[in-house]
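Justification of computing resources. Each target in the renewal requires a structure prediction run like the one illustrated here; the chain below, 275 residues long, is used simply to show the kind of job we budget for.
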Amino acid sequence: MAMTAREAIRAAAERLAGISETPRLDAEILAAHLLGVERETLLLDHLDRAIDAAAFDTLIARRAAHEPIAYIIGEREFWSLPIAVRPGVLIPRPDSETLIEAARDHFDDAAPSTILDLGTGSGALLLAALSIWPEALGMGIDRSETALNCASDNAARLGLAGRAEFRKDNWSEGVPGAFDLILCNPPYVETEAGLAADVRDFEPAEALFAGEDGLEDIRRLAPQIGPLLAEDGIACVEIGHGQGPAAAALFADQGLKTYLRQDLAGHDRCVIIHN
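Resulting C-alpha cells:
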C-alpha cells in the first residue's frame, strides 16, 4: 500500500512519541532514506511523493524497538563527512568533534604530518583529521576486526585510503614512532551508569564501559601517550561529563602537561596533553 511521505511521517512521529526524544526528526530521516533523498530535499520537494507504507513501517518498527537511526540507515554524519556505521561499531557523536576542534586550534596555520587514532572504531576521528590536513598520514588502531573493517571501508569511500593505515592492536602496543597528533575516544562510561536503551542494547559494550569510575582505560593509556608524542605534538583524549580533573591528573602523574577543552554544552569533553 502506498501513502504520501507527509502522511507516513505524521503517523510514524505519533508512533515514536515517548520512545524517541526526536520522533518527527527520526521519521523524516527514515522516510528520506527510503526515498533515496536528503532530508532537506524531502522536506522541500517530496512530502507529497508516494512512499511504500510496508517498507517504511519496517524501518519505523526497528526504531520503535530502540535501534539507533545510524544502524538503520547505515550512516552517521561526523565533521560533515558521511561515516558508515554498523552493529558492533560505536556510533560517532557530535561531542567527539570537540577533539578535532581542539587539534585544529592548536595547529592553527601549521599542520600535523602524522596522526594516530587509538581505538579508531569507525575511523571518524582519523578521517576527519585527514580531511583537514591533506598532506598528513594517519594510523588507526583498534582491537575489533568489525571496527577495523568499517574504518577501512570509510577511508575507501572518502578517498582517504592512501593516507590511512589500520592495524589491530590493544591500544598502543607495537605502535612504531612518534606522532604529531594523537586522537583517542576511549571507553569512559561507568559500569553502573544508566544508559538509554538505544545505546545500552545496541552499541558495543567494550567501546562504552570502563569500570566503576569510567577511567580504567584512561589509566592504561596515561603511561603510553608520552612516548608516542612528537616533540611539539599533542594528544586529544575524550572524557565523560565530570571526569575532567581526575582524567587530567592521570596524565599529569606521568609528567605530562594538560588542559581541558569544553564541548558546546560547556562540559569538559577533551583532555589535551603535551610533553
